Known about the structure:
Elements: H1 2-32, E1 37-38, E2 44-46, E3 51-55, E4 61-67, E5 73-78, E6 84-90, E7 96-101, E8 107-113, E9 119-124, E10 130-136, E11 142-147, E12 153-159, E13 165-170, E14 176-182, E15 188-193, E16 199-205, E17 211-216, E18 222-228, E19 234-239, E20 245-249
Amino acid sequence: xxxxxxxIETLEKANRLYHRSAIALALALVALxxxxxxxxxxxAREIRARSFVLVNDxxxxxxxxxxEKDGTGCLTGFNAENRKTVQIGTSPWGDGxxxxxxxxxxxxxxxxxxxxxAGGINIFSGSGKQVAGVGVNExxxxxVAIYDSSGRQQAFLGSSSSNEGSLQLYNDRGNHIVELxxxxxGNGYITTLNREGKALVTLGSNAADDxxxxxxxxxxxxxxxxxxxxxxxxALIVQDKQGNITGSIPPMSR
Length: 254
């Protein structure tokens, strides 16, 4: 509890510092207007400069407004240890971005866009590893990815190629081992996979919208199928590894 209170107190102090810095920067810019070109009323029309530096009473830099090497503007805030804590600017492809950093200089939150101009948010741990991401997939649909403390993907929430919802869970090898979503017939399904990412069991429906459970071998071939028949009865089909039916309940007519 004391640790939480200390962190809250630290955040409050930081917020007060940024608030005072923002006000001081605004006042400095207003004062500088007197040095710019004036109109007929004596007011400044504009100020032209390549950079502005805001300092505290000790002469330490707390905020800068400058031009990047690519010619775009950038606003950067610094903490008491002169480490960058926030940056606002323009990406090389012309979109805006905002990045926040920890007191140690590691990225915490990145709000930006892809080269295809699709928005995204990346969240990092204190060690700099990405732990979550929100963005847009190649089809233009929203997506959410979750990572562990080592940066390995653990879950993905998005859509399939047919624009239907999909949730995938991953193991420590980076292979997805559970998948939930909408199947080919518009009904829900659950698929479990082995550690190599090969399907083992699928629970869903068949073309007649009846329940179906399918077991697969290591080659991905169906070997056992349990389902509801067209007349509403239960059915069980067993196949060999070549796909030939070796048995069924009730017996299949030949």
